[in-house]
Amino acid sequence: MRLGYRLPSTASWRYLLPLDPHPVHLSQSAISSLTDIVLLVCRDTDAIDSLDRYSMACPALPLCGLAIAEAERGLPDINNRIRALMNKLGFGPDEHFHIRMTGCPNGCTRPYMAELGFVGDGPNSYQLWLGGTAAQTRLAEPFMERMKVQVGV
Asked: Based on the structure, what is the number of domains in the chain?
């Protein structure tokens, strides 16, 4: 789990550039505390699959009142299926793209700007969006209006 990149600083403040979405100003003590927490929780960061590292999902069901489909509980299953297909096609374990999944058309995880976006539009049904960029400088385009996917819960 990479939190971001540190830039050199001339003051006691440093910039933390998270992978997503915006730079954060943190004091040196906050950076140290955050680093300690990450090292405690996630000791072997290389063990995290690159698809999982670059994926994001909203909490969706059962936590969000707007959700009409799974997201957070369904994304690991989708990532496993995508990784299996990528392995079958000969892609390496470090190959990845940004995946965003949301349980409703609100788009809290910005699936409309992801390289691969899933937008819940009903139980086990998703809109599939393709073509955004990793830097989120281009909107994705709808590829499928209703794609039925049985996700593990």
From this structure: 2
Query: The whole model's pTM is what?
Result: 0.70
Domain holding 39, by residue range, is 5-45
Six-digit token string for 136:
């989120």
- pLDDT tens-digit map of 80-112: 999 999 999 999 888 889 999 999 999 999 999
| φ, ψ dihedrals at 23, nearest 5° | -65, 145
Clarify whether residues 21 and 72 are in a common domain: no
pLDDT digits (tens, 9 = 90+) for 44-71: 666 778 888 889 999 998 889 999 999 9
Give the count of beta carbons closer than 10 Å to the beta carbon of residue 148: 10
Distance CA 120, CA 113 (A): 15
How far apart, in whole angstroms, are the C-alpha atoms of residue 65 and residue 33?
A: 34
Instruction: Indicate whether 70 and 134 sit together in one domain.
Output: yes
Same domain, 98 and 141: yes
* 153 within a domain of the structure (yes/no): no
Q: Which residues contact 134 (CB under 8 A, 6 or more apart)?
A: 54, 97, 98, 115
List all residues 6 or more positions away from 69 whose beta carbon is below 8 Å from its beta carbon: 60, 61, 103, 104, 120, 121, 122, 123, 124, 125, 126
